[in-house]
Design goal:
The protein has nine helices and seven strands, in the order ααβββααααβββαβαα. The chain has helices spanning 5-13, 23-26, 65-80, 85-96, 101-112, 115-119, 163-178, 193-204, 227-248; strands at residues 32-36, 39-42, 56-60, 135-139, 144-147, 150-151, 187-190. The strands form two sheets. The chain has a four-stranded antiparallel beta sheet, with no helix packed on it. Strands 4-3-7 form a three-stranded parallel beta sheet. β5 (144-147) and β6 (150-151) form a beta hairpin.
């Protein structure tokens, strides 16, 4: 069963009010959802709000610790102010979605691919601001995954080779995708090869269409040293794909 902020309200209220938390404060037994050897899944609240009218679906692997910390800090403030739960869930989404350098790199790369012109907006940054009715962000695994308390990269173990992780793809990600009003028309932007591999398998399963997937988009992490060269190598092919996608939709 999917965990929500309501399940962790009292635990989060016990945290101090602050902008950022440490791993010692958040990677605690009370927030642990599942564990398998050195692989651990912890609750994070920013994948609960859904934009059912989205045209663009940006898909990550799992919320990293920075996203987890940002979203929990937003939830803590919202609970302190007695903001309605549904509004807090949106605030957590707005604050936590690919926060930090990852968001900055996503915006820079999608601007270079001319996505704003295709969508009729000024810049990709508007998808995270005044035009966010066009955007839905999601992770294949909605909660934060760590290996030995380090952010999980999606490769060791591979998502679909691990029963605990693949469960979230088939039970959570696909359920959320199917809940969209016109899922077959949504542009799917996988962040990196680990997410792309999963989407390709879902094409083979008959759950999504290959004509929706922007293939070749690099993972936007600052630690991805091949990000710029990968973008350059795949740029023209991705621009052609985006133009074909908008013509179909």
């Amino acid at each position: 069963m999917r965990k929500t902020l309501a399940d962790y309200k009292e635990i989060i209220l016990e945290l101090p009010l602050k902008e950022k938390y440490t791993k010692e404060e958040l990677l605690i037994p009370e927030l642990l959802i599942e564990k398998q050897n050195q692989l651990e899944i912890y609750y994070a609240p920013h994948n609960e709000y859904r934009n059912l009218n989205a045209k663009v679906f940006i898909i990550g692997i799992t919320p990293g610790f920075q996203q987890m910390s940002t979203a929990i800090a937003a939830a803590r403030r919202g609970l302190e102010q007695n903001i309605p739960m549904e509004q807090i869930q949106y605030i957590c989404k707005e604050a936590g979605r690919f926060s930090g350098v990852i968001r900055k790199n996503i915006i820079t790369m999608l601007d270079e691919l001319k996505l704003p012109q295709i969508l009729g907006i000024q810049g990709t940054k508007d998808l995270f601001g005044g035009q966010d009715h066009l955007l839905h962000t999601i992770s294949l695994i909605p909660y934060s995954v760590f290996v030995n308390h380090q952010n999980y990269s999606g490769h060791t173990p591979k998502i679909l080779k691990n029963e605990m992780l693949s469960h979230y793809v088939y039970e959570n990600f696909l359920e959320e995708y199917d809940s969209l009003k016109n899922p077959e028309n949504v542009l799917l932007i996988p962040l990196g090869s680990a997410v792309e591999e999963v989407l390709i398998q879902l094409v083979k399963d008959g759950r999504i269409s290959t004509e929706q997937i922007l293939r070749g988009f690099p993972h936007p992490s600052g630690a991805n040293v091949n990000r710029i060269s990968t973008l350059k190598a795949n740029k023209e092919q991705m621009i052609r794909f985006l133009n074909d996608w908008v013509k179909r939709n």
